[in-house]
Design goal:
By secondary structure, this protein is an alpha/beta fold. It has two domains: 145 residues, Rossmann fold; 178 residues, Argininosuccinate synthetase, chain A, domain 2. The chain contains twelve helices and 14 strands. A five-stranded parallel β-sheet has the order 3-2-1-4-5, sandwiched between helices. A five-stranded antiparallel β-sheet has the order 10-9-8-13-14. Strands 6-7-12-11 form a four-stranded antiparallel β-sheet, with no helix packed on it. Strand 2, helix 2 and strand 3 form a beta-alpha-beta unit. Helix 4 packs across helix 5. The longest helix is centred in the last third of the chain and has 22 residues. The N and C termini lie far apart (65 Å).
Length: 403
């Protein structure tokens, strides 16, 4: 709940239409000091003018902080270790960014002596939940201001009119009539012309990836090394988390990898159409699962896979800082101890194929798996195995036959 008269507010600021209007609105509504905070998670050139724009809009101070390394190492990679995918298609690029933004926003608020936090998430979306659950877990004493749940500006057109009255540049134009969110892991698109789930996304919309049909006619190959479930090298070259994601993003984008168009279920109960580009993440998911097929015990793999949808929900719904996510993360990480080795992939016109995998921790034994003659597996043993596993089915069938 917002305080009646906040004195100092830290706003999660992107420089886009919503947060630019919110910054000005906070100042006019609460007559308070507003500190703008923007997390650099790999947005690129769009951050060059963010600080100046915030100050010109009225921010008392503006911070733009490079959190890319922490984002990749402490948020994206743990999520990848769990193979998290929401509803079978969404690799959670926006969802996983919110807890880190909120964490740093809280740290700045405590350092600057602020008494409130603000965000630009709407009252219909998931981000409001993600931000505010993180605030509650990290700094429950700070008040929260969610302008979309308070003000009279109830549409994009109303925001644009407000921005024009206050000489705030408007980034949403007739050429790009939708909203975007970009970070090191992905780009998302929603709203505007994408609200019709029958309408094809305009080809010029995509910022990262080549259209698969326009990708090179010659396939590309990539080799990825993992240690303990984390990617550590590409084509034999050791890379840190940020450089590794950047390298795979470029490679995947060139070959049209990572486009997803889906209608997903928001936490608040609304279905929403989202379009995503996640080239590097798509490559890593495929490579990671290929290596796991060699190194994970069957029952451990199946147990982990049964929990992955729940883990993905925790991230999508905003429970990154919850005790259940932390506990489940420990299980996921324990399962990754032996996921060390190499996967080799082919990239071709939007598709990813596994060419090979190898590991010093492999559980794959050619001497057991071979269809040729061997000295280690007695095929006759399978008869008793089948008989015992079929026993309950036989008993049921005999009962039903008597009836």
């Amino acid at each position: 709940m917002a305080p009646r008269s906040p004195k100092k507010v830290v706003l999660a600021y992107s420089g886009g239409l919503d947060t630019s209007v919110i910054l000005r609105w906070l100042i006019e509504t609460y007559r308070c000091e507003v500190i703008a905070f923007c997390a650099d998670l790999g947005q690129g050139e769009e951050l060059l003018t963010v600080r100046d724009k915030a100050l010109k809009t009225g921010a008392a101070r503006a911070f733009v902080e490079d959190l890319r390394e922490e984002f990749a190492r402490d948020f994206v990679f743990p999520m990848l270790r769990a193979n998290a995918v929401y509803e079978g298609g969404y690799l959670l690029g926006t969802s996983i960014a919110r807890p880190l933004i909120a964490k740093r926003q809280v740290e700045i608020a405590l350092r600057e002596g602020a008494d409130a936090l603000a965000h630009g998430a709407t009252g219909k979306g998931n981000d409001q939940v993600r931000f505010e659950l993180a605030y509650a877990a990290l700094a429950p004493q700070l008040a929260v201001i969610a302008p979309w749940r308070e003000w009279e500006l109830d549409s994009r057109s109303a925001l644009i009119a407000f921005a024009q009255r206050h000489d705030i540049p408007v980034p949403v134009t007739a050429d790009r009539p939708y909203s975007t969110d970009r970070n090191l892991f992905h780009v998302s698109y929603e709203g505007g012309i994408l609200e019709d789930p029958w309408a094809e996304p305009p080809p010029k919309m995509f910022l990262l990836t080549a259209a698969p049909e326009e990708a090179p006619d010659v396939a590309g190959e990539v080799v990825i090394d993992f240690e303990g479930g984390d990617p550590v090298a590409v084509d034999g070259r050791p890379l840190g988390p940020v450089a590794l994601l950047e390298r795979l993003n470029r490679l995947g984008a060139e070959h049209g990898i990572g486009r997803v168009d889906l209608v997903e279920n928001r936490y608040v109960g609304i279905k929403s159409r989202g379009v995503y580009e996640t080239p590097g993440g798509s490559i890593l998911h495929t490579a990671h699962r290929a290596l796991e097929s060699l190194t994970l015990d069957r029952e451990l793999l199946h147990l982990r896979d049964s929990l992955t949808p729940r883990y993905a929900e925790m991230i999508y719904y905003g429970y990154w800082f919850s005790p259940e996510r932390a506990a489940l993360q420990r299980l996921m990480d324990e399962a990754q101890q032996d996921v060390t080795g190499t996967a080799r992939l082919r990239l071709y016109k939007g598709g990813i194929s596994v060419l090979g995998r190898k590991s010093p921790k492999s559980l794959y034994r050619p001497d057991f798996a071979t269809f040729e003659a061997d000295q280690v597996y007695r095929q006759k043993d399978a008869e008793g195995f089948i008989n015992l596993n079929a026993l309950r089915l036989r008993i049921r069938a005999l009962r039903d036959r008597r009836g």
